[in-house]
Prior knowledge:
Strand order of the largest sheet: 1-2-3-6-5-4
CATH superfamily of the largest domain: Electron Transport, Fmn-binding Protein, Chain A
Strand content: 35-45%
Mean pLDDT: 93
Bound molecules: iron/sulfur cluster
Helix content: 10-25%
Number of strands: 11
CATH architecture of the largest domain: Roll
Number of helices: 6
Distance between the termini: 19 Å
Largest sheet: 6 strands, antiparallel, barrel
CATH topology of the largest domain: Pnp Oxidase, Chain A
Shape: elongated
CATH class of the largest domain: Mainly Beta
Number of domains: 2
Amino acid sequence: METKEYLQMIREVKDCAFATVDESGKPEVRIIDVMMVEDDCLYFLTARGKNFYRQLLDQEFVALTGLTKNWEMLCLRGKVKQVEQDYLRPIFEQNPSMNEVYPGDSRNILEVFCLYEGQGEYFNLSQTPVFRETFLVGKQEETYKGFLITDGCIECGTCASVCPQQCIKAGTPYVIRQENCLHCGLCAETCPVTAIDKRPGFQTAFAPSRKFLL
Ligand code: SF4
Ligand code: SF4
């Protein structure tokens, strides 16, 4: 699917968990409504009195996740910026219940933020095999998660036999079907010749020093 469709799915979920870090560097999370999606940007609100507002201004970055009623997980991490309060008008039009929460001029305590660049992932655990797909927002370059079988593979078949999703194909070398992979790491742990590496950009306990990208 295209980015536009994934953003629309996030908008339909609407109530998503948004994460930032607090002043001491610890994670902080809260439910925020995704108010509008336009031109591949995702819009949400917060009030100037909230810690979330200060964190958005300071960090210019947020991570969010939501679950559809069909148990499909969507997550997105990316850059955010504050935009003009003029956006309040279309946002209130598209979300009329906001008039009850912030009636009249009280809406002016709200500020609008836009997520304009980032990387997201769709992950469906309810189908067999599982399915995942990455999508990009704005000029974001893709970073990769999961595992990769290298030329060190001796084609013994051990990884394919233990994979819980049976998503490793025989070949020279063996190949992981990335769209069906759980990222569990069992194949990497069981390969007798350590021929399975993490894909660039993926951080786990296997690579503690690598910058966390998604
Ligand atoms: S376990 Fe390692 S060597 Fe054996 S098929 Fe898998 S990647 Fe290749
Ligand atoms: S990480 Fe897990 S699901 Fe993915 S290929 Fe390896 S064993 Fe299979």
